[in-house]
Specification:
It contains 9 helices and no strands. It is mainly alpha-helical. The protein has 2 domains: about 55 residues, Arc Repressor Mutant, subunit A; about 140 residues, Tetracycline Repressor, domain 2 (Orthogonal Bundle), CATH 1.10.357.
């Protein structure tokens, strides 16, 4: 796979976005999401409100913007896995992208606690992760065996099955993140994820 070159300008923009988002998260965690204004975020970051809007569409985007990039990286990682590997194994490996983000455990805990502790952010988080499902399902589908209905032999249910697998895996990851936050980060996220997956995949 050819390496995608990233320009200095793109790298700089990514760094600035990351710094702005980190500043915002720290303020949200300290003062509360609803009590923090964009002017306060801009002031704390040492930029103008206009500059802030050059990088983020609004306050919710500041808190959730990284989720879109995460989804794309997860899909890319999944596509790199062996084509004959079990989908659930590939998904677990792809989700490891989350652990590779350069941040401290304390900062990650702040982010997760913030996301699940605010109703509007929780809804926005679910919406962003629905996009992950759209990215992953088409990659899962070709790996599944043919699945035709007895009632309609011409209908192949692999697309439905692929979306169900993606949705279930993402839900397990979300449940694991919530439990990890509840435990104050005193657990391994992917041990919790494995426990959630085992519950979903347990035979009747």
């Amino acid at each position: 796979m050819p390496h995608k070159q990233t320009s200095i300008r793109e790298q700089t923009r990514s760094v600035v976005r990351s710094l702005l988002a980190r500043t915002a998260i720290e303020l949200f965690a300290t003062r509360g999401y609803d009590n923090t204004t964009l002017d306060e975020v801009a002031a704390a970051a040492g930029v103008s409100r206009r500059t802030l809007f050059n990088y983020f569409a609004g306050k919710e985007d500041l808190a959730l913007g990284g989720l879109s990039e995460q989804g794309e990286l997860i899909a890319e990682r999944f596509a790199q896995r062996p084509a004959d590997e079990d989908c659930w194994v590939s998904l677990r490996a792809a989700f490891q992208v989350i652990e590779e983000i350069e941040t401290t455990p304390e900062h990650r805990l702040e982010i997760v606690t913030l996301l699940f502790g605010n109703e509007s952010l929780r809804a926005g988080h679910a919406e962003k992760q629905a996009r992950w499902q759209d990215l992953l399902a088409p990659l899962i589908e070709p790996r599944l065996p043919d699945s035709h209905s007895d009632a309609d032999p011409d209908v192949d249910h692999r697309a439905l099955q692929a979306r169900a697998i993606a949705a279930a895996a993402i839900s397990c990851l979300q449940a694991a993140n919530q439990e990890w936050a509840r435990l104050g980060g005193r657990a391994d996220l992917f041990d919790l994820y494995d426990t959630a997956v085992q519950a979903v995949r347990r035979p009747a």
